[in-house]
Automatic annotation (TrEMBL):
InterPro entries: Aldolase_TIM, Ribul_P_3_epim, Ribul_P_3_epim-like, RibuloseP-bd_barrel. SUPFAM superfamilies: Ribulose-phoshate binding barrel. A divalent metal cation binds at residues 31, 33, 64, 173. Signal peptide: none annotated. This is Ribulose-phosphate 3-epimerase. Its EC number is 5.1.3.1. It is an enzyme of class 5 (isomerase). It catalyses: D-ribulose 5-phosphate = D-xylulose 5-phosphate. Pfam families: Ribul_P_3_epim (PF00834). The gene is rpe. Belongs to the ribulose-phosphate 3-epimerase family.
Length: 221
């Protein structure tokens, strides 16, 4: 598995989501930020929009649930068309059960960690997951500045995966740009969510390829 780029539609034009998906045809995933105005102080979109978007694009949808009670809602996002569903460790009461339910429905199961949440307490359940999402900003809003203090956690997560021989992806979300992606790739990340960096570019597809190239070069060092 090589470097993967997942543009976040949080930075896209919500009135033209199908067109915005076409604008990043070179991407590996479309990242969908689901926010409930409870777990995070913002309200975005939910299951009906995911279902409609899944019908409008052949890109796999990477749904990041920044919501309370993901144990209840996560399986429904698979049914709506998500190929990967991420729940937050800080919000999930039964992460193993939830991950197994997501996988049983045919999607990849992922767990997200806020910047201040360490990876080490979750070492024993990593085998139940397909991906770890490390937030490099506080969740809730797009366009935030990348938090360098999260880079050591990326490295420690990669070391834990290597220690147990696990083939999980490490995804980074928050402030990813041409200026920040290399240090994350060097630390061991391989999936990169980029919102404003991609959709604010004159050519979103060209930016996807630029980010991929930078991460591939850095990851090979």
């Amino acid at each position: 598995m090589g470097i993967q780029i997942a543009p976040s539609i949080l930075s896209a034009d919500f009135a033209r989501l199908a067109d915005e998906a076409v604008a990043v045809s070179n991407a590996d995933w479309l990242h969908v930020d689901v926010m409930d105005n409870h777990f995070v102080p913002n309200l975005t979109l939910g299951m009906p929009v995911v279902e409609s978007l899944a019908k409008a694009t052949d890109k796999p949808l990477d749904c990041h649930l920044m919501i309370e009670d993901p144990d209840r809602w996560a399986p429904g996002y698979v049914e709506a068309g998500a190929s990967s569903v991420t729940f937050h460790a800080e919000a999930c009461r039964a992460p193993i059960r939830t991950a197994r339910e997501i996988r049983a429905k045919g999607a990849r199961a992922a767990m997200a960690l806020k910047p201040a949440t360490p990876i080490e307490p979750y070492e024993d359940l990593l085998s139940e997951l397909d991906m770890i999402l490390i937030m490099t900003v506080e969740p809730g809003f797009g366009g935030q500045k990348f938090l360098d203090v999260c880079v050591p956690k990326i490295r420690r997560t990669r070391e834990l995966l290597d220690k147990h021989g696990l083939d999980l992806w490490i995804e980074i979300d928050g402030g990813v740009s041409a200026e920040t992606i290399e240090r994350c790739a060097e630390a061991g990340a391989d999936v990169f969510v980029a919102g404003s960096a991609v959709y604010a570019a004159d050519d979103p597809n060209a930016m996807v390829e630029q980010l991929r190239g930078l991460a591939e070069q850095a990851g090979a060092r």
